[in-house]
Fold these 2 entries.
Entry 1:
Amino acid sequence: MQDYSVGIRSLALSFPSTILTNNYYRQKYPQIVSQSEQKSLAKLFSLADSTPSNEFDQEMLLYLQDPFRGAVERRILAPGESLLALEYRAARDALEAANLAIEDIDLAIATSFGTEEVVAGNAAFLVNQLGLYCPAWNLNSMCSSGIVALQTASTLVRAKEYRNILVVTSCAYSRLLDERDTLSWITGDGAAAFVVSELKANQGILGSKIVHSAETCGAFHTEIAEDAQGKLRLFMKTGKGANRVISNTAADFVLRCCEGAAAAANVTIDEIDFFIFNTPTAWFTKFATRILGINPERTINLYPQYGNIGPVLPLANLYHAALSGKIHEDDLVLLYSFGASANATATVMRWGDVALGPAHFLEKSSTEY
């Protein structure tokens, strides 16, 4: 039993208004679609003329005939939209949902991926726009950034260094990928924000497990290249052998982190009511539930709706699970996230009376292509 219960007090999401469907790419890039199996996405997620060698490959097999590898929609920043604006909206919604004023926040942590500014992150820009007076940190653990920030913030509040910590995590893959690169066809943009505070007794974070993912170093890298307008930009690329590295390490990361977090929380996997995975692929939920031996109904998969939105993924899944009534107060919830060349991590929490920000992004006013 914890003497000081700490966890998520409020949670909000923010997405761009533009939705790109698969028809957008079929109509704009018909030749690339017809040659997609020779492009980057197929090279990343393929069997390379071999048979499935593990559970990840076996679950992926069903999607290999689809040039989009299971992606259906993705939300993309339009020209003139900024990642900082998404972060700001999510942050404001999280503060309002928590019924907290600006002066109630005494630390802000930002985990921004694909920022407009060539700096470590948006922390200073964000607190300036919000009008916060507290310290602001940038934190980076690739696609695990949001959950690592949750662990960090919870530890700091439990240690009574801070009372209320605002965490904002965001991803703008569209700023790091050319849409002529098929890898961009499974990625999207978005932001999430949550407030970490003291909760009711026995609620909040119960245990965590984090391991480095150094085995995946080199799976992705960045390089400077020309975009469609001939301007030099920083782009993300896949490394040689990335498909085998990800496939061969995925199960070990899931098992080590999820079982480790459950043990740290003094519960078993069977006692967990609901599982949240970061679903970076269409088949990751089926893969993870298979590895852990759990019923797929005990989790959620928003990949078809959002694609891969990096560190925002587990928080988007968590928000939707709460919004749809799949998780309830006092349920045991496990969050798992994997970041290439960074960390894999899992956290077990007892869900509290978490206030959700408004679901603006579910309105039908979005522009769809």
Entry 2:
Amino acid sequence: MTEHTTAQQPATDDAAWDPAHPPRQDGRTVVVTGATAGIGYFAAEQLAAAGAEVVLASRSAARLAGARDAILARVPGAQVRTVVLELGSLRAVDEAAAELAALPRLDGVFLNGGAMSMDPRARTSDGHPLLLGTHVLGHVRLLAGILPALTATAVEHGGEGRVVHASTGFVARFRPGFDDPARVPRLGLVAYARAKAVTEVLAFELDRRLRAASHPVASVVTHPGVGVDARTPHRPGIRDGSTPYRRNPYTPWAQGKDAAAWPGVRALTDPAVRGGEYVAPREGMCGVPVRVPTPARTARPGPDAARRVWERVEALAGVELRV
């Protein structure tokens, strides 16, 4: 999906960040949802190159195998696992969460996956609106299942777990409402932005609750800018003649999906990034990932508004996200 937002001023200490050389991640285990294509794939590849054990999570076992092969071709000797994760089925999410929670170690998760259908009538297998179900409800249910494992790893190894949420610049552009998460706007793009606005509210509220509980896990929000196929590097089965090509009018000002993965990778790996922060491209549509001002509308909607969204999403997802 292409993203668009306006440029914002970076924090003063972001100039030293080199997306080609993130901190080494040897010994750490990180999960990436939606890891078989686009931003998710390239985030996983970059994390593997930095030494992390990467768990690819997506709904197709065949595509997971292809993504794993593509990473191993670029990063010989990389540690790559795969877990089938269907975000549109709460029962399937529970199965994947149990598998992930049983890993020997779990240091971070990049909640990147989700359906991109713009049909407002599309539904998950549980009957929820597809965009809300896969981008929000599935990830909340997954997080409820793996948060104890993230906490246990942080305690055992003396570090900090990371939960990184993928948002979009369309939240700032369209300013969709989020009071009733289940309401589906007529325009698909606005519905997508609405799901991501809910994601942002939950992500910032999650970090507040983690801090209040002195939890060793941080919640960080990112958006990728504009990632286009025309600027994305070739990868067999990921970005080649066998994969669909999408034209994009922003191509002259955009970046490849490898660069669009940088904000998520930085949010997972940079020890200077703190919970409750927002990481995005320096130029808005493209550029190195920097920390930008958190959007007041979703980061500080008021305690009652955040609580209402949280409780409504818990009810829709059929789970209590305990912090």
